[in-house]
Write a structure and sequence with these properties.
By secondary structure, the protein is an alpha+beta fold. The protein folds into 2 domains: 227 residues, Roll (T-fold), CATH 3.10.520; 89 residues, ApbE-like superfamily (T-fold). Helices cover 34% and strands 26% of the residues. A 9-stranded mixed β-sheet has the order 1-2-6-7-10-15-16-17-19, with helices on both faces. A hairpin with a 4-residue loop joins strand 16 and strand 17. The two termini are 35 Å apart. It is found in: Cell inner membrane. It is a lipid-anchor. This is FAD:protein FMN transferase. It is an enzyme of class 2 (transferase).
């Protein structure tokens, strides 16, 4: 189901390519637990293939370096923090941690890569979805300790924690980092027209043979897109949804998007998409920002202003749409404008 949805995201981008005269090179892989895809326009395969391969190699390196529950640099850091020890990390890791703390502060703690232990309690730190609810006592203990990325202490490359229950998980962060890395790698290799997709997080470079890249925003309850949008050079779009990774128990859906305040999965939102204009680290911001805005629920417009984001679409638990005016003006709604639609300033 998930793979089909990701393929649908790029169906619009690929459809016109079949009729186009200029070449469109495509390479896919499975990384970060999802399907990733690199589309390169306007170059012969002999030029496009090595560039796309370099991107996929970098994705694989990031995935192996920062995997939360398999042996990796990140899991070694988590082991040290649990044992109360400090650890010297790489400059890359130190930079990621500093950025994560900054984004967590900006999002008022709703984006928190320090809740790895909570993610594990709910069973989402696994290749298999959980079959049962977590132990209530364990959840209460986590809430009492309330570990978070703010507990992390950074002294150049030396990392320690004030809270032994702190565990890091970059699952809500790393795909955006990878988008920005991919953009830089492609440009260095002379690729200026490409579309990069990592599980529904997308960044556009240039155009598709003179036309803007058009992508779909997945409908959270139906196959296919809810709407489509054209992306300008350097823009990125990220979506968080309760359909991406979840399990059901006693007729209730429990998704992987956890509210650190309650230690519970979010139930008031089906999906939230953020479109970020061209800027440094646009990919990272599109990935990061969709999480706290998803968790914020009805308060998302205020938090979006705090984060200086103007293009947001939310689908609430009842399927009603809220969209910012700036994004509404750019969307083409599939099947026409939905009746339950609220356009906000």
């Amino acid at each position: 189901m998930r793979g089909r949805r990701l393929i649908l995201l790029f169906a619009l981008a690929c459809l016109l390519a079949a009729c186009g005269r200029a070449p469109l090179y495509q390479q896919q892989a499975f990384v970060f637990g999802t399907r990733v895809e690199v589309l390169i326009a306007g170059l012969a395969e002999a030029e496009a293939r090595p560039a796309a391969a370099a991107v996929l190699r970098e994705f694989d390196r990031l995935h192996r370096s920062y995997h939360a529950w398999q042996p990796s640099e990140l899991s070694r850091l988590n082991q040290a923090l649990t044992a109360g020890r400090s650890l010297t990390v790489t400059p890359e890791m130190a930079g990621l941690l500093a950025d994560a703390q900054r984004f967590s502060r900006l999002s008022e703690g709703l984006f928190d890569p320090g809740i790895g232990a909570l993610i594990a309690l709910w069973g989402f730190q696994s290749d298999q979805l959980p079959a049962s609810l977590p132990d209530a006592g364990a959840l209460a203990a986590w809430r009492a300790a309330r570990p978070g990325i703010a507990d992390l202490q950074l002294d150049k490359l030396q990392v320690s924690s004030r809270n032994a229950m702190l565990a890091l998980d970059f699952g809500g962060y790393l795909k955006g980092v990878a988008l920005d890395r991919a953009a830089r790698l492609l440009k260095v290799q002379g690729v200026h027209n490409a579309l990069i997709n990592i599980g529904g997080n997308v960044l556009a470079l240039g155009s598709k043979n003179g036309e803007r890249w058009r992508v779909g925003i997945q409908h959270p309850r139906q196959p296919g897109p809810l709407a489509t949008v054209e992306l300008d050079d350097g823009e990125a779009i990220g979506t968080s949804g309760d359909y991406q990774r979840y399990f059901e128990s006693h007729g209730r859906r429990y998704c992987h998007l956890l509210d650190p305040r309650s230690a519970q999965p979010v139930t008031h939102t089906q999906a939230l998409s953020v479109l970020v204009s061209a800027r440094p680290a646009a990919g990272m911001l599109s990935d990061v920002a969709s999480k706290p805005l998803f968790i914020a629920g009805a308060d998302w417009p205020r938090l979006a202003r705090v984060l200086q984001l103007e293009q947001v679409l939310r689908v609430d638990a009842e399927g009603r749409l809220q969209v910012s005016r700036a994004l509404h003006a750019r969307l083409d709604y599939v099947g026409g404008q939905p009746p339950a639609l609220e356009v906000l300033p």
